[in-house]
């Protein structure tokens, strides 16, 4: 359970060992407190600087840009208030993109959770070539998303691509416009490729979670005459709960920020059937130079992702973090 | 389902670019003036030719060091945007004119070349017009071409097509004939949108009078019914299903399954594309030969009852611009790039359509020479709409035209979407 425990605390309120009040020493020693401050600065400084420059500052700038009509160069002068937000929220391409993100969020969890669980349970048994199989399942995840996308783009080429060639050799003609070129199939095709790519992460996390399930619980069940299936259903999967919930959280946030895969496979097309919020804002920004609109879209994406994260934290993950914090401090049970 | 948040990637990339930029300056360590030059001839022979040109110039001017970056076209546009934002633009870069140039001029990014290049400008004559604003010239066009139909001679004769179409009725017939011969008539990179949009632009050039188009550029008014008729013409043509299988996701120029790739590998008979097409196709074949003598070109056919001049052309070009902070040597080098000598070599390598009259006879490719005749005979060359109207209006227009190719937008939708984007600019 090591991985999941780390992840859980990672998304909870961060325990900060450095800034935690140190054991009180002689309070009058100003030199010591300066020294402490310097130490804190030394260790936290670099990370904090990076965080401020690459996370906080861009967010502030994006929020600022979103209030102006701006072409990407020159000073910010044309203040338009919240017009950009209204334009984005009334834009059908954006609302569709939001819907596509939701489809990917739900689709990823619904497909990858059972599939990943099944594979993890299988790979958790003693079978020949276990290590090899685990590696094979994990390889797609190790590939850079861009590389995986380019490979699939070639495989999915209409008529001349491997997928269509194989299908037509067994008598099934591919769709006229190709899998990525038919508006009705394109988003589902993207979902299939995403599943191929990210199933490995689910399996890896689930396997790690399975390692953490105490063997004595399973043995006790075996002695009581439980079948393999009963053990999985009644013991393993419930005990895997925290891992599943954290994985679902990671998957959800990733799906909301979906960009590279779509950008390379379809560019958001055909007929805007695969746009995501991220492709929308990149198109508006870098392609059309409507940086104000793009910034407004990025702020909306940020707020949506934040809302998802907080809600999930409150409604789903809280139980896990609560349990864990109690476990970590056995003496403080109240 | 992606793990690394996009913003970090962008931030990291920006940081790298920023750090790299810190290291360079106009003066290198050995006292030479460094000129950075970005262009999109990233395949041979163009790439090698420009390297040679720079070397020749450096030979005559030992105090100048030219740093070339040859990039794929779309990459170059993205990098240019980033460079303009960071205020670290290359000294010499490509400008396509129209609304884009106007924005750059307004933001003070582009050098006024009116005086420093006066001799060259007078030599180039009318073709400079697209890069002028308020009587000042901001860039020197080195290649101006027109869009038309490139075709595979062998495939068309195989289908029994002997005369190239001059009207759309004849074109419909050709499409039918080619289909009947079991060949896909046309490829179009609708995945990239602009190649699809060229159809609508060109139908508009045929349907609309020059006055209407000229007015539209400044007034951004698309209410004239000729724009609607252009959409109807296009809708009817798409209805004939003349395009390659999978055209909605086909890209313009990258790889053998791109629209250009399909033409050069003999999978389709024709493609509507710009003057750069022979060069692109050469880059897509292993022996750099493209379709060779097998490549033909004909102009966009006339539309029955259209108000536009049937010999008018739609096209555009590329010009060398010098960024505001560039050293004077950069201007001198750009003038050299437009010299008879360099333009002749440019033409001999089939890199485009030279604008220097002294180089026109050096165009060896017969297909390009034919295109050049059409360009020089045209009463006017309408700049690509997405360039002329600027990226915001042009992008909205292209999006909606691509939707029409997918059967999801009507002629009225194209006009409405364009007008809406245009109104947002006013």
Please describe what this structure looks like.
The complex is a heterodimer of chains A (334) and B (426). With 334 residues, chain A is an all-alpha fold. Chain A has a single domain (88-329), classed as MetI-like fold (Orthogonal Bundle), CATH 1.10.3720.10. Chain A is built from 14 helices and two strands; from the N terminus they run ααββαααααααααααα. Chain A has a two-stranded antiparallel sheet with strand order 1-2. Chain B is of the alpha/beta class. Chain B has two domains: 28-144 and 315-367, D-Maltodextrin-Binding Protein, domain 2 (3-Layer(aba) Sandwich); 146-314 and 383-425, Periplasmic binding protein-like II (D-Maltodextrin-Binding Protein, domain 2, 3-Layer(aba) Sandwich). In chain B, 47% of the residues lie in helices and 15% in strands. In chain B, strands 3, 6, 11 and 12 form a four-stranded mixed beta sheet that branches. A four-stranded mixed beta sheet of chain B has the order 8-9-7-10. In chain B, 52% of the residues are buried. Classes of the chains: A mainly alpha (334), B alpha/beta (426). At the A-B interface, helix 2, helix 4, helix 8, helix 11 and helix 13 of A face helix 1, helix 3, helix 4 and helix 17 of B.
């Amino acid at each position: 359970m090591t991985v999941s425990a780390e992840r859980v605390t990672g998304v909870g309120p961060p325990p900060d060992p450095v800034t935690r009040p140190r054991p009180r020493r002689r309070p009058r020693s100003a030199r010591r407190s300066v020294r402490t401050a310097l130490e804190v600065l030394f260790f936290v400084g670099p990370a904090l600087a990076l965080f401020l420059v690459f996370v906080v500052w861009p967010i502030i700038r994006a929020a600022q840009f979103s209030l102006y009509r701006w072409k990407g160069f020159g000073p910010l002068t044309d203040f338009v208030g919240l017009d950009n937000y209204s334009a984005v929220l009334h834009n059908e391409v954006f609302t569709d993109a939001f819907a596509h993100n939701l489809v990917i969020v739900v689709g990823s969890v619904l497909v990858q959770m059972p599939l990943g669980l099944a594979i993890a349970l299988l790979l958790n048994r003693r079978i020949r070539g276990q290590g090899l199989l685990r590696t094979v399942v994990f390889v797609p995840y190790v590939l850079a998303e861009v590389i995986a996308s380019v490979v699939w783009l070639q495989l999915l080429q209409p008529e001349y691509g491997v997928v269509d060639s194989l299908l037509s050799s067994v008598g099934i003609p591919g769709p006229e416009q190709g899998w990525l070129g038919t508006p009705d199939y394109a988003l589902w095709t993207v979902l299939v490729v995403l599943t191929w790519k990210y199933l490995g992460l689910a399996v890896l996390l689930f396997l790690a979670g399975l390692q953490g399930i105490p063997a004595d619980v399973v043995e006790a069940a075996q002695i009581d005459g439980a079948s393999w299936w009963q053990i999985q259903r009644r013991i393993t999967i419930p005990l895997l709960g925290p891992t599943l919930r954290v994985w679902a959280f990671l998957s959800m946030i990733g799906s909301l920020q979906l960009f590279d895969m779509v950008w390379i496979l379809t560019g958001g097309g055909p007929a805007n059937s695969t746009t995501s919020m991220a492709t929308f804002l990149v198109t508006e920004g870098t392609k059309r130079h409507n940086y104000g609109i793009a910034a407004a879209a990025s702020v909306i994406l940020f707020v949506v992702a934040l809302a998802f994260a907080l809600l999930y934290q409150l409604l789903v993950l809280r139980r896990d973090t609560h349990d864990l914090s109690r476990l970590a401090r056995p003496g403080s049970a109240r | 389902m992606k793990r690394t948040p996009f913003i970090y990637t962008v931030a990291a990339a920006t940081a790298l670019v920023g750090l790299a930029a810190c290291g360079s300056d106009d003066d290198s360590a050995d006292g030479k003036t460094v000129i950075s030059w970005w262009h999109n001839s990233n395949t041979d022979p163009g790439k090698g030719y420009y390297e040679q040109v720079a070397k020749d110039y450096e030979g005559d001017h030992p105090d100048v060091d030219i740093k070339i970056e040859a990039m794929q076209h779309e990459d170059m546009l993205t990098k240019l945007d980033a460079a303009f934002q960071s205020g670290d633009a290359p000294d010499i870069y490509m400008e396509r004119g129209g609304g884009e140039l106007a924005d750059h001029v307004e933001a003070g990014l582009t050098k006024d070349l009116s005086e420093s290049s006066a001799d060259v400008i007078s030599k180039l004559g009318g073709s400079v017009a697209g890069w002028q604003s308020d009587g000042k010239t901001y860039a020197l066009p080195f290649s101006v071409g027109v869009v038309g139909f490139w075709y595979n001679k062998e495939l068309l004769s195989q289908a029994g097509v002997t005369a190239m179409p001059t009207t759309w009725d004849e074109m419909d017939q050709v499409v039918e004939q080619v289909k009947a011969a079991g060949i896909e008539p046309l490829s179009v990179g609708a995945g990239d949108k602009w190649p699809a949009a060229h159809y609508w632009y060109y139908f508009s050039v045929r349907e609309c009078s020059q006055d209407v188009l000229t007015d539209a550029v400044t007034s951004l008014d698309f209410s004239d019914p000729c724009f609607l008729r252009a959409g109807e013409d296009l809708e009817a043509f798409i209805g004939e299903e003349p395009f390659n299988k999978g055209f909605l996701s086909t890209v313009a120029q990258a790889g053998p399954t791109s629209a250009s790739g399909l033409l050069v590998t003999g999978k389709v008979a024709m493609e509507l594309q710009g003057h750069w097409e022979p060069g692109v196709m050469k880059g897509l074949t292993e022996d750099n030969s493209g379709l060779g003598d097998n490549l033909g070109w004909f102009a966009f056919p006339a539309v029955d009852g259209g108000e536009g001049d049937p010999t008018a052309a739609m096209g555009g070009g590329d010009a060398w611009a010098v960024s505001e902070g560039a050293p004077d040597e950069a201007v001198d080098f750009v003038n050299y790039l437009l010299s008879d000598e360099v333009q002749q070599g440019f033409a001999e390598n089939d890199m485009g359509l030279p604008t220097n009259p002294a180089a026109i006879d050096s165009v060896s490719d017969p297909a390009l020479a034919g295109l050049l005749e059409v360009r020089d005979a045209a009463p006017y060359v309408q700049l690509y709409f997405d360039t002329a109207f600027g990226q915001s209006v042009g992008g909205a227009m292209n999006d909606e035209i691509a939707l029409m190719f997918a059967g999801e937008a009507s002629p009225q939708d194209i006009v409405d979407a364009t007008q809406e984007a245009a109104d947002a600019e006013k």
